[in-house]
Amino acid sequence: MSMEDQLIADFYDYEALLPDEERKLLLKARDFMRTEVKPLVNENWAKGEFPHELVGKFRELGLAGLPYEGYGEHLPATSHLLNGMMAMEMTRTDPSVATFFGVHNGLAMYSIYSGGDQEQRDRWLPSMAAMDKIGAFAMTEPLGGSDVAGGMRTTARREGDTWILNGAKKWIGNATFADLVVVWARDEEDDNVKGFVVEKGSPGFVPVKIENKFAFRIVENAEITLTDVRVPEANRLHGIDSFRDVAEILRATRGGVAWQALGVMIGAYELALDYAKERKQFGRPIARFQLVQDLLVKSLGNITASWGMLVQLARLQDAGIFKDEHSSLAKAFVTSRMREVVAWGREIFGGNGIVLDNDIMRFFTDAEAIYSFEGTREMNTLIVGKAITGQSAFV
C-alpha cells in the first residue's frame, strides 16, 4: 500500500479487518475522492452549487449498489463494515459530495430494496446502481422533523389505481435534479405512512433549491410542494404498510450517518495535523507545543473510540441482530465527538482556520448538519434511554 493510501488517523489499523477484495474497493473510492472530487470542492462550496459533472464520474467509478445483492457490479453483496468505511472515506474528503452519494445509494436505494416488491426492485435498482437514474428521499417536512412519525402532514388519497399526494417536504437532498424521489405520505384512509416513488417531471411536484445555507453548501437541498401529484399504484412501495416499516430503513441509515461523522473527524484531524507540522511560531513548528499535541491526541482518541464502536455496529448489522438503540447510541455519541474534533482542529489553525482555502472551516460548518439530521442527539438519547431503563421519556 502506498503512503497516499494509508490513513494516518487509522491508529489501530481498523481497515485491516476488511477482506482484500473489499479493501481494494475502499482504496478505489479513496483515489477517486482524492483525484476527482477534492479539486472541485472548495469552488463549488463557495458558490453553493453541486458539480453535476461528478455524476458521470461516479457512474464510471461503479460503486453504487454494492450493498444490494444482485444489483452491484463488483460483488454479490458487501459487508456493512465496507459500506460504513465507504461513507467514512467519502466524507473524509467532503461531507457534501458524500451526502449526495449516501442519499442516492443509501436512503433512496435502500427504501426501494427493502420496501419494494421484486418487480419494483428490478424496475428501478439496476438503473440506480448504474447511476443512470439518481434518487432522493423525502421524509422531513417544513413543520415536522423529530415528530414526523406522528405528525406527518403530507397526505395520500387513493382513487382506483392512482394515489393523489398533497403536502410539502423540506431539506430533501438531490431533489432538485433527482430522477426518482421516494416520498413518504400518510394514507387518508387508514392513517398509516406509505412510500411512493415520484418520477421527475410529475405534474404538481415542485422542488425549489434552499439557498443561504452555511453547511452542506454543495448539496442541493430542496423544499418540495406536492399539489395533487398523481402516482400509480405500481409506484407505491408495496412492502411498506406503516411507519414501523419506515423505521427499519431509518435504523440502517442512521448508522451510516455515524460513519459520516467519523469521516468528518478524520478529515479535520488530518488537516490539523498537517498544519501543525508546517506552521511555525516562535521559531519552531506548533506541533512541538504541548497544548497543540494535547488537542491532536484528544482528537485521535475520539476517532479511535468512535471507529471501534462503529466496527461492532457493523458486525451487529451483518449478524442481523442490531436494534434501534444500537444505531441511535452510535449516532448520538459519534456526532458529539465529531463536534469536539472539528472545534479543536479549527483551534489549531488559529485565524487561518476561517479561510476556505485551508479546508478546516468547511468541515467545521458541515459537521453541524450531520449533528442534526437522521435524528438529533436528544431524540437518539431518548431512544437509548428507553432501551436501558424500560421507561419512555418521550412527550
What does this structure look like?
- The protein has helices spanning 20-47, 53-61, 80-93, 95-115, 118-129, 148-151, 243-278, 290-319, 324-349, 360-372, 377-389; strands at 135-138, 155-159, 162-173, 180-187, 193-199, 205-209, 221-232, 280-281, 284-285.
- 52% of the residues lie in helices and 14% in strands.
- The model has no long low-confidence stretch (mean pLDDT 91).
- It folds into three domains: 10-129, Butyryl-Coa Dehydrogenase, subunit A, domain 1 (Orthogonal Bundle); 135-235, Butyryl-CoA Dehydrogenase, subunit A, domain 2; 243-388, Butyryl-CoA Dehydrogenase, subunit A, domain 3.
- It is an alpha+beta fold.
- Strands 1, 2, 3, 4, 5, 6 and 7 form a seven-stranded mixed sheet that branches.
- It is built from eleven helices and nine strands.
Summarize the structure.
The chain has eleven helices and nine strands.
Which helices and strands appear, and what pairs or packs with what?
Layout: H1 20-47, H2 53-61, H3 80-93, H4 95-115, H5 118-129, E1 135-138, H6 148-151, E2 155-159, E3 162-173, E4 180-187, E5 193-199, E6 205-209, E7 221-232, H7 243-278, E8 280-281, E9 284-285, H8 290-319, H9 324-349, H10 360-372, H11 377-389
Parallel strand pairs: 1-4, 2-4
Antiparallel strand pairs: 2-3, 3-7, 4-5, 6-7, 8-9
Helix pairs in contact: 1-3, 3-4, 3-7, 4-5, 4-7, 7-8, 7-9, 7-10, 8-9, 9-10, 9-11
